[in-house]
Structures are given as structure tokens and as C-alpha cells.
Amino acid sequence: MQGKNLFNFGPALGYFFRKNDPNRTTNFNLRTMHFINKLSLAMFLVGFCVLLYRWFLR
Q1: Between 12 and 53, residue with greater pLDDT
Q2: What angle is formed at CA 34 by the lines to CA 7 and CA 20, rounded to 5 degrees?
Q3: How far apart are CA 46 and CA 58, in angstroms?
Q4: Which residues of 14-52 are buried (b: 16+ CB within 10 A; e: fewer)?
Q5: Taking Cα atoms as reference points, which of 34, 43, 29, 33 lies closest to residue 16?
Q6: Is the distance from CB of 38 to CB of 16 less than 8 angstroms?
Q7: For the segment 9-30, what is each residue's pLDDT rounded down to a tens digit?
Q8: What's the rounded Cα separation, in Å, for the pair 22 and 50?
Q9: Residue closest to 12 by CA, chosen among 31, 40, 32
Q10: d(Cα 19, Cα 13) in Å, to the nearest integer?
Q11: DSSP string, 14-47
Q12: How far is the C-alpha of 32 from the C-alpha of 39, rounded, in Å?
């Protein structure tokens, strides 16, 4: 992997802030899976921020 692509967070941020595509079919299982993925990523980021706070600001 090249260095310039190492910190490319565009696709990850686009996952959180994309608009609904009316042409894409959806069902309960797919919506639930995406909700759980977003929730787990958000919890990871909160935990990572807490760790950074404890390591550097204490």
C-alpha cells in the first residue's frame, strides 16, 4: 500500500454521511446490519478518544 493512500478516510466517512439511494433495494436485515456497523464504529471512535485523552492529557 502506498503512503498517500494509507490515511485515506474518504470511503469510511462517506459510509456515515451518504444519502439514501432510491434505486437500491433495502430490507430489515440490511438496515439493521448497517445500523450495527455504524454504532460499532462510533463506539470505537469514542473509546479511542477516551484513550487518547488518558494518555496525553493526564
Answers
A1: 53
A2: 90
A3: 17
A4: eeeeeeeeeeeeeeeeeeeeeeeeeeeeeeeeeeeeeee
A5: 34
A6: yes
A7: 777 777 777 777 788 787 899 8
A8: 38
A9: 40
A10: 12
A11: HHHHPPP-TTS---HHHHHHHHHHHHHHHHHHHH
A12: 10
- Which candidate, 10, 11, 15, places its Cα nearest to that of 39? 15
Residue with cell 455504524: 38
- Here the cell at position 6 is 494509507
Find out whether 26 and 4 touch, Cβ atoms under 8 Å. no
Whether 55 has a pLDDT exceeding 70, the answer reads: yes
DSSP character for 6? T
Residue the block writes with cell 470505537: 44
